[in-house]
Amino acid sequence: MSGTWILACFVCLSLAVSGQVSNDTRAFPVGGTATLPCTGVPYDGATKHWEKNPVIPIKFLVVIQTPLGQSSYGDPFYDETNIEAAGLTGRFRVTEDLMTATITGVRATDDGDYRCASGPSQIIHKFVAYKLDSVGIQPSGPVTGYVGGTFDVTCTASRDSKPTPSFNWTKQGDSSFTATGATLRISSLTMNHAGTYVCTAYHAYARDTASVQLTVSEDMNYCSGAVAGAAVGCFFGGLLVGGAAVFLFLRSRTAKNGGKKDVGNFADRQYENVPHPNQRVTSQRPGSGSDEYEVPMETIQPPQPSDDYQELRPAVYQSLQKH
């Protein structure tokens, strides 16, 4: 009996390819839930079904029909083989009368034509799964530019965006500024270019924005020279302060010592056993009977007046002069 039912169903569905046709394009975000209505397609009293990418013979996803000898349709019959082939396992469900089909966890591969038909009536939904997220700007900013320089930033979106997005640029508070393309480049910057720039990424089904703040400063070379000049000035200033500190330290030390030189210590030295130039020294000659003998002495010249002697104590200096 079930074999006869399936065969009869295929025959009926194969014949139901003509009649009223309504096309409807519907777009759903990847990861969301899609709802497909079967409006305008009443149950013809025999069969009604949903299929993906209609072909002949029909590979229905789900079907209802009125069993022989009964006046109303039975429970929906899901063809799990075709559902698996469509990549919809566990995600495709319909109401009892097939008036609404639901796809959960939408995937990019769910794109295609979904057809609901009964008798001479049908509706085909052109299903589009889209994605647009992770819109950002590199560098992310805030960005500092310099007068005469170039401002260069790029707007990006996730690589798996679907369909491929386009980009345009605007400037907050300046309705006259517009630019297209992922990369924004402004050459010969002036102070008037400072502000907030907004990138809009968009396609037919979604759009998203990101912004970056631009600050314009004086010429970079001028700033670098000023910094370098300040550094050099600080260096020489440090040398002057350090030199002054050393000078004051030495001056303080000199004042503390009373201005005396180290050579002044010579005044405390004692001179002993300094024989007179005409004095003879006697001593016993070893191994001889003589008690004394003369030892010639080297003539020692008295010290000549010098700065060192001038520094000695006056009494010692006068004594040396007498000899």
Q: Quick one: how many beta strands?
A: 19
Determine the structural class based on helices, strands and strand pairing. alpha+beta
Largest sheet: 6 strands, mixed
**How large is the count of helical segments?**
5
As for the number of domains, it is 4
Would you give an account of this structure?
- With 323 residues, the protein is an alpha+beta fold.
- It has five helices and 19 strands.
Blueprint (SSEs and pairs):
Layout: H1 2-15, E1 20-29, E2 34-37, E3 47-52, E4 60-65, E5 77-78, H2 80-85, E6 92-94, E7 100-103, E8 112-118, E9 121-130, E10 136-138, E11 143-146, E12 151-156, E13 166-171, E14 174-180, E15 183-186, E16 195-202, E17 207-217, H3 220-256, E18 281-283, E19 293-295, H4 307-310, H5 314-322
Parallel strand pairs: 1-9, 11-17
Antiparallel strand pairs: 2-7, 3-4, 3-8, 4-5, 6-7, 8-9, 10-12, 12-15, 13-14, 13-16, 16-17, 18-19
Transmembrane segments: 226-250
Subcellular location: Membrane
Keywords: Disulfide bond, Glycoprotein, Immunoglobulin domain, Membrane, Receptor, Signal, Transmembrane, Transmembrane helix
